[in-house]
Write a structure and sequence with these properties.
The complex is a heterodimer of chains A (about 250) and B (about 325). Chain A is mainly alpha-helical and about 250 residues long. Chain A is built from ten helices and no strands. Chain B is α/β, with parallel strands linked by helices and about 325 residues long. Classes of the chains: A mainly alpha (about 250), B alpha/beta (about 325). The complex binds adenosine-5'-triphosphate (ATP) and magnesium ion.
C-alpha cells in the first residue's frame, strides 16, 4: 500500500475544496438554510406534527441527507473527472498506485468534505429549529456511511462521464427526483397505500428513514433494513469500482 | 548459497535497464500502432527515439509507463515486470508527456509535492527546492500554473517527473515549442541527469537534438523499429560525403567517359556532385580529379559536405515508405 500516495491525493483534493470554499461549503449551507426558513419556520408553523415531531424538526434529517447525497456525488465525480478532462490523469495512471489508493484518496476527500458540510448544516439548523438527537452514534454512523457510499457512486460517475453533460445528468435527472421523493419532506405513511409500496424501491427512502430514526427514534422502515441497504449499495459501488479499474475501462487506451 | 548474487554481471538485465520484448499495440479503432517491437535501453544512456508523426513513439512510451495497455509482449524495468510488479517498475520511472497537461489552478510547489507523494516518496522539501532551482522555477514556486508561459509549464512537467528521483526518465518531445535558449538549458539538464546516473529516453523531431545529445538512436516508422544503433556508428554507416565542384564552364551532360562514377550534374550544368561512402578507405577523389583533368574539365572551387543525421533519417524513413 502506497500511503504517501493516498496522502498526496487526499491533500490535493482537500486543497481544491478550500480553494473553492464559497462554492463548495457556503452555498449548500445557504441553500439549506433557505429550506429551513421556508419549510421549517414559515410553512411548518401551520403544519401539524409528524410522528410526534414538529414539522420544522422533522425535515432536518431529510434536508441534511439531501445535501449529503448531492455533494458527495458531485464532489467525487468532479474530483476524478477533472484530471481526465485536463489530461493530468496521465500521472495517476503512471504512478505506482493501485485502484485501492486512488479510491481511498479521492473518495475519502469527497466524503470528508460532505461530512463536514452535513455537520455545518446541522449546526446551522439550530438557529432556526429546536431538535434533539436520540442516537448520536447512529447519526454519525449514517452520516459517514452515506457520505462514503455516495462519494463512491459519484466517483464511478466521474469515471464514466466523458463530457460535462454526462457529469451533470445523473445527479440532476436521477438523484434529484429520488431525493425529493425519498421522504425528506414527508413521512411515507402520509402517502396513498400503492405509493407506499412503490416508494420502497427508492434507495433514498432507507437513508432518510434511518437517519431520521437516529434523531427522533421514529422510522418509516426498520433501522436495521436501512443500514443493510446502505451497506449493500456501498458493496455494489465497491465492486463496480474494482471492475472498472481491473479492465482499465474509460481510463486507458 | 546465493551463487548468483555474488556474480551481478551474470544477470542479463544488468546492462539493460528497460527491456522491451515483442510489444504490439492495436487500438480499439483497429489501428495497429506498434508491431512487435524489441528494444533494450542500456543503463545510464541517453536514447533518442526518432520517427515521423504517428510512428508510434508516444504509444511505446505510454506502454512502458503504464498509461496504455499493450496488446502483446512484455516490458521489464530494472528486472521488474511492468504488469505484475508494477509498483517497483513504476517507482523507477519519470515521465514528461508530450501534451502540456497541468493542473491550472495549482501552484508549482503544490503540484511538485503532489507528484513526489503520488510516487510513494516521503516529503523532501530540500530536494524539491533543488529541482525547482535547477529548472529556474524556484521564483515561480507560488505561482498558479495557469499564469506560466508554455516553456515554464514544460519545465513544471519536468520538475514533476523528477520529483520522486526516478532512475529512468522519459521525455516525450521535451523541446517542442521551446525557444533556442531554453532548449540548450534543457540539453544541459539532461546531461547533468545522465551524470547522476539517470537513464534518459527522449523523442524529438529536432534531429539536431538527437545529434547533440543521444548516445544511441532508434528510428521508428509505422510502428516498426527499423534501426537501433550507436549514434556515431549510424552516422558513419549511413552517412555519405559529397564533393561539389564548381565548373569553369558549364557542361550539357556528364561525359560518357565518367559514366561509371556516382556523379550528378546540376540543372544549370555549373556544378558536378560526387557522392562517396564515408566508410571506405578509398574515397576515389584522387582518381576522379585525375580523370577530370585528362578530359580537360576545369573547376574553380570545390567543397565537401557530410550528411547530417537528418538526411540519414529522411532517407531511412523514405526507403521504408
Ligand atoms: N487512443 C488512440 N486510439 C486510436 N489510435 C490512436 C490512439 N492513440 C494513438 N493512435 C494512433 O496510433 C498511431 C501512433 O500514435 P503515437 O502518438 O504513438 O505517434 P507518435 O510517434 O508519438 O507521433 P507524434 O510524433 O506525432 O507525437 C497514430 O497513427 C495515432 O493516430
Ligand atoms: Mg508522440
Amino acid at each position: 500500500m502506497n500511503i504517501h500516495a493516498i496522502r498526496a491525493i487526499y491533500r490535493f483534493e482537500m486543497a481544491r475544496t478550500f480553494r473553492t470554499l464559497m462554492q463548495s461549503i457556503a452555498s449548500p449551507v445557504l441553500s439549506t438554510s433557505l429550506y429551513f426558513v421556508v419549510f421549517g419556520a414559515a410553512i411548518g408553523s401551520r403544519m401539524g406534527e409528524v410522528d410526534g415531531v414538529s414539522y420544522g424538526a422533522f425535515i432536518i434529517p431529510g434536508l441534511i441527507m439531501l445535501s449529503l447525497l448531492n455533494e458527495s456525488i458531485s464532489n467525487a465525480a468532479f474530483g476524478i473527472y477533472m484530471p481526465k478532462w485536463a489530461g493530468t490523469i496521465y500521472e495517476l495512471l503512471s504512478a505506482p498506485v493501485s485502484y485501492v489508493e486512488v479510491v481511498i484518496g479521492y473518495v475519502g476527500a469527497a466524503a470528508t468534505k460532505s461530512i463536514v458540510l452535513g455537520l455545518l448544516i446541522l449546526v446551522t439548523a439550530r438557529f432556526f429549529v429546536a431538535y434533539h438527537i436520540e442516537h448520536p452514534f447512529w447519526m454519525i454512523g449514517f452520516l459517514v456511511l452515506t457520505a462514503v457510499t455516495f462519494s463512491l457512486f459519484g466517483f464511478i460517475i466521474g469515471l464514466w462521464a466523458d463530457d460535462f453533460q454526462k457529469l451533470q445528468v445523473v445527479p440532476l435527472m436521477i438523484m434529484t427526483p429520488l431525493t425529493f421523493l425519498g421522504g425528506s419532506f414527508y413521512s411515507i405513511s402520509m402517502l396513498p397505500p400503492i405509493w407506499q409500496k412503490i416508494t420502497l424501491f427508492n434507495p433514498v427512502v432507507y437513508l432518510v428513514s434511518g437517519f431520521r430514526w437516529s434523531f427522533y427514534g421514529k422510522a418509516d422502515v426498520d433501522v436495521v433494513v436501512s443500514a443493510g441497504m446502505t451497506l449493500g449499495f456501498m458493496a455494489l459501488c465497491l465492486i463496480a469500482v474494482w471492475w472498472i479499474f481491473r479492465t482499465g475501462w474509460k481510463l486507458k487506451a | 548459497m546465493p551463487v548468483i548474487e555474488s556474480r551481478p554481471d551474470a544477470a542479463p538485465s544488468a546492462e539493460a535497464i528497460v527491456s522491451i520484448r515483442g510489444v504490439s499495440k492495436t487500438y480499439k479503432s483497429g489501428f495497429q500502432a506498434l508491431k512487435r517491437v524489441d528494444l533494450d535501453i542500456r543503463r545510464g544512456e541517453i536514447f533518442a527515439l526518432l520517427g515521423p508523426n504517428g510512428a508510434g513513439k508516444t504509444t511505446l512510451i505510454s506502454i512502458v509507463c503504464g498509461i496504455v495497455t499493450g496488446s502483446e509482449g512484455n516490458v521489464l524495468v530494472d528486472g521488474h515486470d511492468i504488469a505484475h510488479d508494477f509498483r517497483s517498475a513504476r517507482s523507477l520511472i519519470g515521465l514528461v508527456p508530450q501534451e502540456l497537461s497541468t493542473d491550472a489552478f495549482e501552484s508549482v510547489w503544490a503540484t511538485v509535492k503532489f507528484s513526489r507523494g503520488l510516487f510513494g516518496r516521503a516529503p523532501d522539501p530540500a530536494y524539491l527546492e533543488r529541482v525547482l532551482r535547477d529548472l529556474s522555477l524556484w521564483e515561480k514556486r507560488d505561482a498558479k500554473i495557469m499564469t506560466l508561459s508554455g516553456g515554464m509549464k514544460r519545465r513544471v512537467l519536468i520538475a514533476k517527473a523528477l520529483a520522486h528521483e526516478p532512475r529512468v526518465l522519459f521525455l516525450d518531445e521535451p523541446t517542442a515549442g521551446v525557444d533556442v535558449e531554453l532548449r540548450h538549458d534543457m540539453w544541459q539538464m539532461v546531461h547533468k541527469l545522465r551524470e547522476a546516473g539517470v537513464t534518459i529516453i527522449l523523442t524529438t523531431h529536432y534531429i539536431e537534438e538527437a545529434e547533440e545529445m543521444a548516445d544511441r538512436i532508434g528510428v521508428i516508422s509505422r510502428g516498426e523499429l527499423i534501426v537501433v544503433e550507436e549514434k556515431t556508428t549510424l552516422m558513419r554507416k549511413l552517412g555519405k560525403k559529397q564533393l561539389s565542384l564548381q565548373l569553369q564552364s558549364p557542361l550539357s551532360a556528364i561525359p560518357a567517359d565518367l559514366a561509371d562514377l556516382p556523379l550528378e550534374l546540376s540543372a544549370d550544368g555549373q556544378q558536378l556532385v560526387y557522392t562517396f561512402d564515408t566508410q571506405t578507405e578509398e574515397t576515389g577523389i584522387a582518381p576522379l580529379l585525375r580523370r577530370l583533368s585528362e578530359l580537360g574539365i576545369d573547376f574553380k572551387d570545390l567543397h565537401s559536405s557530410e550528411s547530417s543525421l537528418e538526411d540519414i533519417f529522411v532517407s531511412l524513413v523514405r526507403s521504408r515508405a
